[in-house]
Amino acid sequence: MLCVEVTVNGKRRCVAAVGDLTTFDAQIVRYPGRDGTATTRLEVGGISRDLSTTFNWVADDHLLGEGDVVTIRVVDSKAPDVPVASPSGMSQLLSRRRLPDVRRFVRDALEKVDLPQVMLTWLVLLYVAALLQRCPR
To answer: How many C-beta atoms surround the C-beta of residue 120 within 10 A?
Structure first.
C-alpha cells in the first residue's frame, strides 16, 4: 500500500496510509502566539472521500524546534500506523458553515444595473471591434 513515512531527527513518527483519502498532507505549520511567540508543529493528516472523517497520524503535542530535521518519504508498507485521532465531525462542520447566497448577490447586482447604458456600452465595443477588424495592419 502506498504510504508516507515521516521521521523527525531520525526517529520514525508515523507511517501514514494514503489509501482511499480525498486529500492527504504532511506539513510543518507555524502558529503565531498573541505574545509574539510562535509554535511550530508537525501535522500529518487526511480527509475521507465523503468528507465525513478527518485522520491525524501525529499527536498534537509534537512541537518542532530550531535544527529539527523532518523527513517525508513515500514508501510501500503492508501495515501502516493507525491514526492517533479520527474525529468524525467534518460533515457536521461543513453543514454548519454558512455559504453566501449567490442568487441574492446576482439579484442585487442586476437591480443596480442601468440596462440601457450597459447595452449601449456593449454595442459601442462591438462596433469598435468590427472597425479594428477592417483596419489594415
So the answer is: 11
